[in-house]
Amino acid sequence: MRWLVLVVVVMSAACTPVRVPPGEAVQRPILEADALVARDGARLPVSRWEADTPAARLVALHSFRDYRGAFDQLGPWFAARDVSVIAMDQRGFGDAPHPGLWAGSDALVDDLRDLIAVLRREDTDTPLFVLGESMGGSVAVALMGGEDPPPVDGIVLAAPGVREGIPVKPLWDGGLWLAERIMPRFAVTVREDYEGVLAPEAVQRFRHDPKVLRRIRADTYAGVVWLAETASLRAASVETPMLVLYGAGDRTIRRVAICHLVRHHATGAVDLRIREDWPHLLLHGPDRERVATEILAWMNGERHEGAVHRECADSGH
């Protein structure tokens, strides 16, 4: 009987999803030249592109599997147009601690909060915006829709990770919950090739950059899905002005979920832009500078908030 108990305990431990949460808060977050040192002392690498005379600052959060190198093209583009960009490796990605392992939704949200707090201490006057792509968008929504959101002038969401209203959601959630407990360490290698979809340099980066995560564990994938769920649940509490960018042919994020996000904004200060030719990773498409131009115009006050209902009504959602 003791052996049976031991076997059950060992098997249960082997099937526990791995999470690498932050340690205890031991310091006030600080921003060094090349990293955010978070409240638990973890170093999260950053890249900064500083404008000569910044009219605004933009915190940039990468998508799932990616890292701060996602903004190597757009960072200098914005800096040349008076917007300083700060891009950070989120925990579990790029050069941040424990690449490939999930730190937890709260950890990613708290790291963004820490970065915003440090930047606000540096400069309280220059407008501060957050740009989140896919998973990065989930983090931004989860923070701004949670308790005590930080002072931010606006959030820009590029195909954000949200999932309200998707078909057979309970079945999908049940299967995912079971998978992360039965085989959390099971991993697949992502072989998606973006040839003809993204800009040539982005295609090469996703093919060859060793910092792009290609081996995905089941528990890590489940973690990013639960993060998207958290963002969806908190969407109705977001009061910060929001620009949402989405490609009509996106097969990663459902249009119905995007419409739920924008319709439930607490104040209605939402500008939704849907384009037929935008891919899911629309910040890396062949026309990314046109996308960036739309973002810049919105940050400068060019808003079309009435387009929200029209875009979603046209889709039948």
List the keywords:
single chain; 317 residues; alpha/beta; two-stranded antiparallel sheet; 11 strands; disordered N terminus
Notes on the structure:
Residues 1-14 have low confidence and may be disordered. The chain has helices at 2-14, 74-79, 105-122, 135-144, 169-182, 200-208, 218-234, 255-263, 288-299, 307-315, and strands spanning 30-31, 35-37, 43-49, 56-61, 83-88, 128-133, 154-158, 187-189, 215-217, 242-247, 270-275. The chain has 10 helices and 11 strands. The chain has a 9-stranded mixed sheet, with helices on both faces. Strands 8-9 form a two-stranded antiparallel sheet. By secondary structure, it is of the alpha/beta class. Helix content is 37%, strand content 17%. The radius of gyration is 20 Å and the shape is globular. It has one domain (2-315): Rossmann fold, CATH 3.40.50. Helix 4 crosses helix 7 (218-234).
By DSSP (H or I, 4+ residues per run), the number of helices equals 10
Q: What's the number of extended β-strand segments?
A: 11
Distance between the termini: 57 Å
How do the strands line up in the largest sheet? Answer: 1-2-3-5-4-6-7-10-11
Structural class: alpha/beta
Main beta sheet strand tally, sense and closure: 9 strands, mixed
Which whole number gives the mean pLDDT? 90
Domain Serine aminopeptidase S33: 53-286
Pfam families: Hydrolase_4
Protein name: Lysophospholipase
